[in-house]
Amino acid sequence: MSRGTPLPFYLCALAALTLVATTLEFWGAREIRANVSEVFFLTLVAAVLLILAAKLFPWFGLSLRDDAVERKNLSALIALCGAVLALGFICAGANIGEGPSFTNNFFCDVIGIASFFLLWFIVELIGKISRSIAEERDLATGLRVCGLLIAFGLIIGRALAGDWHSETATVQDFIREGWTAAVLLLLALIVEPFARPNRRQAFPPWPVCGLLPSALYLSLAAVWLWHLGAWEGMPR
Predict the structure, then answer these.
(1) 98 lies in a domain?
(2) Which terminus of the chain faces fewer neighbouring Cβ atoms within 10 Å, N or C?
(3) Residue 160 structural domain
(4) Residue 88 pLDDT more than 90?
(5) Contact (CB, 8 A) for 112 and 160
(6) pLDDT for 37-83, tens place per residue?
(7) Neighbours of 148 (CB within 10 A)
(8) Average pLDDT in the chain
């Protein structure tokens, strides 16, 4: 039996790291922008965080090796690509703005990644999305989850962007600007029972049950980012 290719996942991981490096180069702290070695170091930190985060994916029912490669599950591959892109947006947002120390960037990384996995855990716990993807190989669910995870990443990353003041201020800003991720979570939990495979429809149509909800999640995230506008300290 031939194996599937993980190439799209690795390309998405590369795109995520490129996004982090670009963000550091244009919107990182002045000291970081002035020193290529610091841009490289923080991009390397993001790479390590992505690798560690990817180790958690099987705990959420999706494995790159077992599902995407060994079983050639396209739905799993799409969902995992969405997850790594979402983490790229989070790490990029965590590195935006002025701050006195690298620990500020790391603090934001940890908050963002932990929040992302908490949201994913709740969707998995209640919506049982991994079963539809890994066992039933439902393409619509893979597309839907991909869009949802990227939308989470966009909202969380934007909530972390801006100049550093303190740990308390960072958490307060994160809650104030990232609470819509919880609304998106609630919407996803409402959509799942209607869109996932069931006895009457083993394979829901992917344009209606996959692309449409995915586009909805991403559109809502984009509208929220537009509503928030420029982050504190963003060059005019």
Answers:
(1) yes
(2) C
(3) 7-228
(4) yes
(5) yes
(6) 999 999 999 999 999 999 999 999 999 999 999 999 999 999 999 99
(7) 30
(8) 94
* pLDDT score of 90: 98
pTM: 0.96
Instruction: List the structure tokens of 84.
Output: 């790594």
Tell me which residue of 35, 47, 214 sits closest to 141, measured CA to CA.
214
| Nearest-angstrom CA–CA distance, 99 and 161 | 11
Residue 171's Cα: distance from chain center in Å? 19
DSSP alpha helix (H) spans, the chain: 7-27, 30-33, 36-54, 74-94, 102-127, 129-130, 139-160, 167-178, 180-195, 206, 212-228
- Rounded to 10 degrees, what is the CA torsion of 225, 221, 180, 96? -40
CB–CB of 121/53 below 8 Å? no
Q: Is residue 184 domain-resident?
A: yes
Q: How large is the angle between the packed helices 167-178 and 139-160, nearest 10 degrees?
A: 140
Are 181 and 120 in contact by the 8 Å Cβ rule? The answer is: no
Q: Is residue 16 part of a domain?
A: yes
For residue 234, being part of any structural domain is answered with: no
Render pLDDT for 102-148 as a digit per residue (tens, 0 to 9). 899 999 999 999 999 999 999 999 999 999 999 999 999 999 999 99
Residue 1, pLDDT above cutoff 50: no
* Residue among 126, 52, 117, 122 at smallest CA distance from 86: 117
Measured between alpha carbons, how far is 88 from 93 in angstroms, rounded to an integer? 9
